[in-house]
Every structure is written in structure tokens, then in C-alpha cells.
Amino acid sequence: MLSGCKSHKETVVNVRPEFNAEEVWQLGEMKGKEVVFLEGQKKITIQINPEAGTFSGCSGCNRYFGNFKDLGDGKMVLSDFNGTKMACPEAFHKMENNYMQLLQRCDGFNLSEYSLELMQGEKVLLTFEKIKD
Fold first, then answer.
1. Would you say residue 112 lies in a domain?
2. 54-58 and 115-120 as β-strands: parallel, antiparallel, unpaired?
3. Residues contacting 132, CB < 8 A, separation 6+
4. Are the CB atoms for 107 and 120 separated by under 8 Å?
5. Tens digit of each residue's pLDDT (9 = 90 or more) over 43-55
6. Residues 83-103: tens digit of each pLDDT
7. Which domain holds residue 110?
8. Which of 17-26, 81-90, 110-119 has the lowest mean pLDDT?
9. Could you count the other beta carbons within 10 Å of the beta carbon of residue 67?
10. Which of 24, 44, 85, 109 has the most neighbouring CB atoms within 10 Å?
11. Is 10 within a domain?
12. Single pTM value for the model
């Protein structure tokens, strides 16, 4: 007696989140350490607009912006950094400088629905949480 085998195929669709220009991400960690904002300090944020090829945000005191290029497979280039130069308390500038130095080293990202990790190689430098879309 022969019995037939049924072939059952499943299609797995891996939907990878994409950047949305309306999304605003707030910094939560730098190099794995929780960021504690000082009283009166603006939150550090980033917005990435892949269609326009730009990024922008608040670095805790000043606004910053530049060019963004998605190279695929979680790789990216951030370039042409620029920003405002407002006077702020020294402690704000210290955190801002640390953030901007790390941001300039980032060459990759992991993006999920509610979190964004910016990386240098395999090392996570900056972790953000979505606050607006």
C-alpha cells in the first residue's frame, strides 16, 4: 500500500523596518550606559530621512544635521556634519561633544519598530527609542 506525501510550502516574509522621515528617536544609551539628562537640558534626538539623504536632530543644546546614505545590509554613511553654535552650560556641551564624537564614528545601524542602534562595526555606540512618528 502506497501513501502519498503532500508537499507543504510556507513562505516566510522577513519585513525589515525602514526609516520614516517623520520618526523622531531619543537617545537612551551611549556605549551601553544610560543617558541621564541634566535639568534644563534638551533631549538628544535624531531624525533620518532616507529619501532626502539627510539626518538632523538636537544634540542636547544645539541642532545638528548632515547627509545620510543607506548602503544596505545595515550599513550607512553619515557625512557633512554641521550645526548651530549656541552658548550652553559646560555640562551640556560635554555631553553634546561626547554624543557628536560617537555619532561621527557610526557606520551601521539596527532598526526595529521602537528602537534604533547606531554602530561602529559590530559595536553599538548609541541606542535610541522612538518618541514620535
1. yes
2. unpaired
3. 22, 23, 24
4. yes
5. 999 999 999 999 9
6. 999 999 999 999 999 999 999
7. 24-132
8. 17-26
9. 14
10. 44
11. no
12. 0.85
Cell triple for residue 118?
547606531
Q: Examine residue 17 and state whether it is found in any structural domain, yes or no.
A: no
SS3 29: strand
Retrieve residue 66's grid coordinates: 548632515
Q: Is residue 9 domain-resident?
A: no
Number of residues in the chain: 133
CB within 8 Å of 65: residues ≥ 6 apart: 54, 55, 56, 57, 81, 82, 83
Cell of 39: 535639568
Residues sharing a CB contact under 8 Å with residue 1, sequence separation 6 or more, in sequence order: none
- Would you say 47 and 55 are in contact if contact means Cβ atoms under 8 Å apart? yes
Contacts of 15 (CB under 8 A, 6+ apart): none
Residue 6 to residues 3, 9, 11, 111: CA-CA distances in angstroms?
10, 10, 16, 38
E-strand stretches of 59-132: 63-72, 75-83, 108-111, 115-120, 123-132
